[in-house]
Amino acid sequence: MTRETTDILIAGAGIAGLTAAACFGQAGYSVTLAAPRPPSRDKTEGDQRSTAFLDPATALFSQAGLWDALAPHAQPLQELHITDTTGWPPKIRDTRAFRSEAPGTPPLAQNLMNWRIADVLLNALESLPNVTLHWGAGFASMVTREREALLRLTDGTSLRARLVIGADGRSSTVREAAGIEAEISRFGQKALAFTVTHPEPHSNISTEVYNQGGPFTLIPLPDSAGQAQSAVVWMTPGPETLRLQALDDAAFSAKASTRSAGLLGPLTLASRRALFPIITLRAKALTAQRTALIAEAAHVIPPIGAQGLNTSLNDLAALLGSATPDTLGSRQHLDAYEKSRARDVAARVAAIGFYNRLTRSGLPPLQSLRLSGLKVVADLPPLRRAVMRAGMGG
What we know:
The chain is an alpha+beta fold. It folds into 2 domains: 187 residues, FAD/NAD(P)-binding domain; 165 residues, D-Amino Acid Oxidase, subunit A, domain 2 (D-Amino Acid Oxidase, Chain A, domain 2, 2-Layer Sandwich), CATH 3.30.9. The protein is built from 11 helices and 20 strands. The C terminus is likely disordered.
């Protein structure tokens, strides 16, 4: 049997998989990325979520020569506001601001639409001669040896690779083939992701509005045709999310405006609504022989505090940083990756999962605890700095 040879096989074409292909390709490795289909580059049909990239992520993109192409589409986020509300319609009880305390420092994050990120990354990958984009086939199976992995894709293609990267999502076939189990917690929540326009400027402030069911998060985007706009992630119990999804645009906009506590004025839906379930997932190991898991194949975190994709890109930075041409995919390489990421991943999955359970509750005692915790974190400078440092990837 004839097998194609590649340094790295990446399964999955989400943002993490595309970024991994670009970063390893720019580093000089031969890369094959396999996925059933490419992500949509279209504003209407593409991924309606946005990602607020923290400093480690923008540093990774800069290292790979990608940030110059992403930067024109980014909206700087200067502050994060946490607004606590109660009742319906929601009444604001308190707001706390988190911002860099040093004058002249860069923004806390840079926000981009996911469909736009995919477009930029695909453009970059299509220009790299050592990267092969194998569309129409996913990962099927593998046999690993000390020096290589023998792979088969769903279209029958056979390959040999020094490293297999599983970036194929929460139902990862690479994780299953490697025999790695995962711990999953379900919250009975779903989230809607969409874009809105609004009359009030967002002032480069990202705001998480808490009431019950989960946060309603407004993330600034660049103006569109002279109108201020923001990306929204709205977490609610599953049945309520389905009911909201079924509303017509006008009724949905009115509900979203009420849930936002009117912070930016009336909201007008400006995109389709994407729906996805809220869970936490943590793989019990990040590596196996000749195999590394990254992103949602390794961990899934609720969309709170910009931790999801940023944690995934921290995985990639560690996997790339611990590789050399001689050790790629070796036990030495994979042990270094596991050691650098396992503790951080476990801590973030646990912390964000606990925080989500607390903030989704409509019970008055837990809502009071939520408000008290917000005040303690925001009003004690050492604790505020520690939380911000952790949130920013430290």
